[in-house]
TrEMBL record, chain A:
A Pfam family matched in the record: FAD_binding_4
Organism: Seinonella peptonophila
Keywords: FAD, Flavoprotein, Oxidoreductase
GO molecular function: FAD binding; oxidoreductase activity
Entry's transmembrane regions: none
Domain FAD-binding PCMH-type: 37-216
Name of this protein: Glycolate oxidase
PROSITE patterns (alphabetical): FAD_PCMH
Cofactor: FAD
Lineage of producing organism: Bacteria, Bacillati, Bacillota, Bacilli, Bacillales
InterPro entries (alphabetical): FAD-bd_oxidored_4_C, FAD-bd_PCMH, FAD-bd_PCMH-like_sf, FAD-bd_PCMH_sub2, FAD-linked_Oxase-like_C, FAD-linked_OxidoTrans_Type4, Oxid_FAD_bind_N, Vanillyl_alc_oxidase_C-sub2
TrEMBL record, chain B:
Reaction catalysed by this enzyme: glycolate + A = glyoxylate + AH2; (R)-lactate + A = pyruvate + AH2
Record-annotated 4Fe-4S ferredoxin-type domain positions: 8-39, 60-89
Keyword Iron-sulfur in record: yes
Broad class of enzyme this protein falls into: oxidoreductase
Name of this protein: Glycolate oxidase iron-sulfur subunit
GO function term, MF aspect, one: metal ion binding
Organism: Seinonella peptonophila
Top-level taxon of the source organism: Bacteria
């Protein structure tokens, strides 16, 4: 609860213009991109300086008011839903690109910078920031760090955590600290940078980010392979890696996704195929051509019915379109689209895909699977209607089985979306009690009053103040 | 709480179609300016849903948030889930009208007492001509009488071109026969309401182009305002009344196609069937009507190559009309037509399909926000180094003229409707733009 006195303190810090607490304003911050979760914050604060962030945290920490740091609110695990009320700390005024360091190949940005804007800026200088989550035109770098966002280029280039060199962050106490920097090697103490990346706003508020950049690859080529069975598609992925080739992207679409995508975009995809793989390689032209030729040969040998290498950039674009429009195509069919991200080691994709198909049949659900086959990160996507309570129960049961299968195969319940609220019931099961407790102790060391994004990652110790389910 | 609202199952279904993914955020001009959820489509849909399900009050704050939307529908282009945002917005504004929330008085006056009455509009045109012709406008300016107007009207009056005299307007014949040896089509020209006063010449140019390409052009009797502004403001019954009048006029005219030259009007005409979903007979008539509506750029592109008589050695760029691009999905034909002009160097404008802030009468009702949006647009326009910015909708044209003055580009750049430009390059006569550049 925010008392009159605290409200005045907050307003004194950020100014009247940047403090919002009308019912309708709060209502607009009661949800993010996650289906089914909604809860009202007490106020929205939009700080403009690090000093303001520190001052806000001090007040909130003293009064034990929850603080939910937020960028564009596109996360898919309920990470920014204020289930215990409190204040939403909106970071989108921190939107400056501070420096592109051409000697060290780093970029220093504020957390509110939009991911795609960063891409554009560095690519103009022939540099490359690989993480490209599906929401990159909307999402902020701060949000990407909080969730350790992935994307389609994970196979070869890794994910957000592989590019963060240093941070400035603020603790609930109001202390402004730095970790890491522009050093490629730095083992002075624990790696706080890596710890904060993916911490979902539960440990600190990030106010500045130093990211590593790569040279922009000179050449890129795309290949598509169609399969009349699911297993050979997965085997192709395994074979490519086993042959010491690491493509930039390996995306898979299953038959139900192919059908929906083709109905939507009329790309002329063969609807009788059980799966399609989209593979991209980048780098030096000669090497890319050699790799692509070898990939095509492997795909055919394993059992692809048809393999086609794009001849022009336009053709590549058209091929990748099938993957890019997948979410759009799927989300038009039913009101509620639940996109999951169970992930397994790449050698287990075939088993995972068959399991998903079986589970989908058992529970009589429409589950379309597409995703980043190259890094084992699949997106089984359930098309449902949140108003159909009976079906929702089956959806929950089905996903529970999918999670259990992923863990059994040595995988994880979440590859890139985070735990938030959506996965917290399975976290302990995956980690084991001791790891789970250790993580909670780390949380307490940073945030003894439990004000930073309470009720996320770990199941809550407090009673939830507001209705969580819509 | 909000029990007087008529929320249909269809409305609820459309609201539920939004999965709040946020993909619309960067496409929203007001969100780009303000950065708050209350100023983007995802937030507005949440508010509409909140009001429709009685979780939120329909109060002055709701009105403020809903009124701040330009209605440009760029979010519909960005939306992966195909949410019918335009419909949701119209429903929300209808709620507001039903609930007697005070709307902007300028808007109320223009919509209820002016645009619905063709005769009043005609008289307004005459009056305006008189004021301009007799130098009363200048006089009023020098005596600071314009200060009596609200600031938005005062600011926008400077961009209004001289209107055509009543004597010339009265001479218009109902039919301009094809001037080509072919007779391809009989085309009705939708003249619009305000369009025919401020842009009479553009309507005439449209007719000239069509006749030269083998069309008989009919100025259909008894047609009137398309009703777009009424619908966007929540005055649905007025919009329905206007729609019925236009449908009837079209049916009696027996033309093959009904062509318009204003992206905003065109979209409203193409969506007439949405108005009559509860009236089977009128719905059928509306569907028939909609099937025959075309934007002039679609038609010209189909009939191209155009018989250009002159070349134009300049650099030009194109600003999309929101309702043409996002609403009617017409992006290619105006660009292609421009690029067919001999000598013209075409340069694409960055974010060309972002609203310029004109948005019907938004620049009168929300002047400061409209100007912020315009200033961002003009920065991109400036970067093109173009000498000419071409539009496909009269509202955008006026706003671009305002933008050129505001950004101090008036010595180096002009704005023109594509139809007027084509007309000047195909026909001899009054070649204003061509001569000035």
């Amino acid at each position: 609860m925010i008392t009159q006195a605290i409200r005045s303190q907050f307003i004194e810090i950020v100014g009247e213009e940047w403090y919002k607490d009308s019912t309708q304003e709060r209502y607009c911050y009661s949800f993010d991109a996650t289906p089914l979760f909604q809860a009202m914050p007490d106020a929205i604060l939009i700080p403009g300086t690090v000093a303001e962030v520190a001052a806000i945290l001090k007040v909130a920490n003293h009064a034990k008011i929850p603080v939910i740091t937020r960028g564009s609110g596109t996360n898919l695990a309920g990470g920014t839903v204020p289930i215990h009320g409190g204040i939403v700390l909106l970071m989108n005024r921190f939107n400056k690109m501070k420096e592109i360091d051409l000697q060290n190949l780093t970029v220093t940005v504020e957390p509110g910078v939009i991911t795609a804007d960063l891409h554009q800026e560095v690519e103009a200088k022939n540099l490359f920031y690989p993480p490209d989550p599906g929401s990159m035109r909307v999402s902020t770098i701060g949000g990407n760090l909080a969730q350790c966002a992935g994307g389609m280029r994970g196979v070869k280039y890794g994910v957000t955590k592989d590019y963060v060199l240093g941070l400035q962050y603020v603790l609930p106490s109001g202390d402004v600290l730095r970790c890491g920097g522009k050093n490629i090697k730095d083992v002075a103490g624990y790696d706080m940078t890596r710890l904060l990346v993916g911490s979902e706003g539960t440990l600190a508020v990030i106010t500045e980010v130093i990211l590593k950049l790569l040279p922009l690859p000179a050449y890129k080529q795309t290949l598509v392979a169609y399969y009349d069975q699911l297993i050979p598609a997965a085997q192709t992925v395994e074979q490519i890696l086993a042959n010491r080739i690491i493509p930039a992207t390996m995306e898979l679409l299953d038959q139900s996704t192919i059908k929906v995508v083709d109905q939507y975009a009329q790309l002329g995809l063969p609807q009788n195929m059980k799966a399609m793989l989209l593979i991209e390689q980048d780098g030096h032209k000669e090497q890319v051509k050699i790799d692509m030729h070898q990939i095509a040969t492997l795909a055919k040998r394993v059992g692809a019915v048809q393999v086609k290498i794009a001849k022009t950039a336009d053709e590549s674009k058209k091929l990748m379109m099938a993957r890019r429009v997948a979410l759009s195509a799927l989300s038009r069919i039913k009101p509620t689209t639940i996109l999951e991200d169970a992930t397994v080691p790449r050698s287990r994709i075939a088993e995972m895909l068959s399991a998903i198909e079986k589970i989908s049949n058992t529970y009589q659900l429409t589950i379309c699977t597409f995703g980043h086959a190259g890094d084992g990160n699949l997106h089984p996507t359930c098309l449902t209607d949140e108003r159909n309570k009976d079906e929702l129960k089956r959806v929950e049961a089905a996903f529970q089985e999918i999670f259990e299968t992923a863990i059994r195969l040595g995988g994880t319940v979440t590859g890139e979306h985070g735990v938030g609220i959506a996965k917290q019931h399975v976290l302990k099961y995956q980690l084991g009690a001791t790891s789970y407790e250790l993580m909670k102790r780390i949380k307490r060391a940073f945030d003894p009053n439990q004000i930073l994004n309470p009720g996320k990652i770990f199941t809550s110790e407090h009673r939830k103040r507001l209705v969580v389910r819509k | 709480m909000n029990d007087h609202l008529q929320t249909s199952q269809k409305l609820m279904d459309q609201l539920d179609q939004c999965m709040h993914c946020g993909f619309c955020l960067p496409s929203c001009p007001t969100y780009r300016q303000v950065g708050l959820e209350t100023y983007n489509p995802r937030g507005r849909i949440a508010l509409i849903k909140g009001v429709a399900t009685e979780k939120l009050k329909l109060n002055a704050e709701f009105t403020k948030h809903i009124d701040a939307c330009l209605g440009c529908r760029a979010c519909e282009t960005a939306c992966p889930a195909n949410v019918a945002y335009g419909n949701l917005l119209e429903s929300a504004r209808e709620f507001i009208v039903q609930s007697d929330q005070k709307s902007n008085w300028i808007q109320r006056f223009i919509l209820k007492h002016l645009f619905t009455h063709p005769h009043r509009l005609y008289t307004l045109g005459n009056l305006l001509w008189f004021v301009q012709k007799t130098g009363l406008q200048k006089l009023a300016k020098s005596f600071r009488l314009l200060n009596l107007l609200p600031s938005s009207l005062r600011e926008m009056q400077e961009i209004i071109d001289p209107v055509v005299s009543p004597f010339i307007r009265r001479k218009r014949k109902n039919l301009s026969p094809s001037s080509s040896h072919q007779r391809l089509l009989s085309v009705g020209l939708f003249t619009g309401c305000i369009m025919d006063i401020f842009f009479y010449q553009t309507n005439q140019a449209t007719a000239r182009l069509l006749t030269s390409l083998g069309c008989n052009v009919v100025f259909i009797k008894r047609q009137g305002c398309c009703g777009a502004l009424h619908l966007h403001a929540g005055y649905k019954s007025e919009a329905m009344q206007l729609a019925k009048r236009n449908i009837q006029a079209f049916e009696q005219s027996k033309v093959d196609l009904l062509v318009n030259n204003a992206g905003g009007c065109g979209l409203a005409l193409k969506e007439y069937h949405h108005l009559f979903e509860n009236d089977q007979a009128w719905y059928q008539r509306a569907v028939h009507f909609v099937e025959h509506v075309r934007d002039i750029h679609e038609v010209l592109y189909e009939l191209s190559p155009l018989p250009f008589k002159k070349s134009l050695n300049i650099r030009a760029t194109y600003q999309d009309s929101c309702h043409l691009a996002h609403g009617q999905h017409i992006r290619k034909s105006p660009r292609q037509l421009l690029q067919q002009i001999p000598g013209l160097e075409y340069i694409e404008l960055e974010d060309a399909d972002q609203c310029c802030g004109s948005a019907g009468i938004y620049n009168l009702t929300h002047f400061p926000m409209s100007m912020k949006i315009l200033d961002e647009k003009m920065a991109y326009v400036h970067a093109t180094n173009a000498q000419l910015i071409v539009t496909s909708n009269p509202g955008c044209l006026l706003q671009m003229k305002k933008g050129i003055i505001r950004s101090g580009l008036d010595k180096q750049m002009q704005a023109i409707h594509l139809v007027d430009l084509l007309d000047q390059l195909i026909f001899d006569g009054d070649n204003e733009i061509v001569d000035r550049i």
